[in-house]
């Protein structure tokens, strides 16, 4: 072995030794915080865990979550905010819940945006004629009937926009072409792009679809117009077309596009749906599991967020079928109108603000229901120690990772931001943003066995948190 390898080996050993020390120190701290009795109590849930995992993964519930999700998705398809399909899908999920003998189901009405996509097309006219795949962004205004024909200016980030001369932007179509690093980092180009381009005099704005991978698939999503700026039409184009336009303009050639878009906007009444499996000792105390039942108008909303809704639907159903009634209440919430600005979650938080101290823990699954890996937890250290100890019970299905996060889920952040502890489903979702908000969000993304693992994990974790002798600290 030469000296280089010996050094490398030493460095690796030191790194892994230090990591091991950090982990050991954390678990020492947790051991102190929890105490032997609580650790023993949490460990004693292994029998319940086994019962739930067996029933869902190998027993009578095997394949049920996938089947129910498929029936739902096939029947209603896309469920955009304000649509009849969404309201019908809510009626349907109430029916299948009651059919399981869960009669504690209520809905709460609220006003939601109803934006409807009309005809949309973008044609490149120069340097050659080519049709582009396009999806208007939610709340985009229409173009004039004759469309908008203008030159494109490609912008890689907001700093470049702010530094450009007004004459370079005025009268043009701005194309934001930020390379995808993460959803969080690139989302502002979709949500604020039109407003910022309009402030510089652009006549329309386009965004490179937010995603790492594409088969000519545009991704839609929400955007909002700022105050006092002209509302310009705004849409997403594919990674392929964004790169094509970038290459052509980088060669000094002009790209001219013709954009035609139409849409309409009004408001409708929708509903949050709340299913309770009442606790046996502290029914006022809530452990919430949730997902959002609305989707974008493209695709089928199977992944976003049908999967999250159906593992959250499964939790009280499975517990009811197994006759497992925890100490606290398990509440399933199917949020409405998430995609158009977390409208259902805000309405719930406001309506229940006086009783939000009763929320012991809140969970949401909205980043895919691929194989579960653990939980992404927004809570203080003491709470994290309890959750980490519970997650140890899920080593057999590789779902014992605790990711520390300041965001537990888009809807529930409305509640966790007030200091209530919560978590999202941490899952093997590297492909999530391939399909998100596209025509590709169909049942083919979902896997029967992974949904079983997710439903079993979600149910067992919620049960244990709802049943242990201590509240989750906040
Ligand atoms: C673009 O789409 C239009 C309308 O669908 C069609 O008539 C036209 O032939 C297409 N153009 C090209 C170059 O494919
Ligand atoms: C928009 O204009 C109104 C009226 O002039 C003003 O009160 C408000 O502060 C402006 N909003 C923004 C974001 O500039
Ligand atoms: C857990 O991970 C191990 C190693 O990657 C793998 O062999 C095993 O099949 C996984 N178990 C489950 C239930 O996915
Ligand atoms: Zn979602």
Instruction: List the ligand species.
Output: 2-acetamido-2-deoxy-beta-D-glucopyranose, zinc ion
Poorly predicted regions are 1-15
Averaged pLDDT: 95
Number of helices: 15
Fraction of helical residues:
40-55%
Family: Belongs to the peptidase M28 family.
Main location: endoplasmic reticulum
Subcellular location: Endoplasmic reticulum; Golgi apparatus; Lysosome; Secreted
Subunit structure: Homodimer. The monomeric form is inactive while the homodimer is active.
Give a structural overview.
This protein is α/β, with parallel strands linked by helices and 474 residues long. It has two domains: 30-104 and 278-467, Zn peptidases (Aminopeptidase, 3-Layer(aba) Sandwich), CATH 3.40.630.10; 118-265, 3-Layer(bba) Sandwich (Glucose Oxidase, domain 1). 40% of the residues lie in helices and 24% in strands. It is built from 15 helices and 14 strands. Strands 1, 2, 3, 4, 5, 6, 7, 8, 9, 10, 11, 12, 13 and 14 form a 14-stranded mixed beta sheet that branches. Helix 2 packs antiparallel against helix 15 (448-467), helix 3 crosses helix 10 (302-321) and helix 10 (302-321) crosses helix 15 (448-467). It is elongated and about 70 Å long. The N and C termini lie far apart (53 Å). Mean pLDDT is 95; it is low at 1-15. Residues 227-228 line the site of one 2-acetamido-2-deoxy-beta-D-glucopyranose.
Key features of this structure:
alpha/beta; elongated; single chain; binds zinc ion; binds 2-acetamido-2-deoxy-beta-D-glucopyranose; 2 domains; 24% strand; 474 residues; Glucose Oxidase, domain 1; Aminopeptidase; disordered N terminus; 14-stranded mixed β-sheet
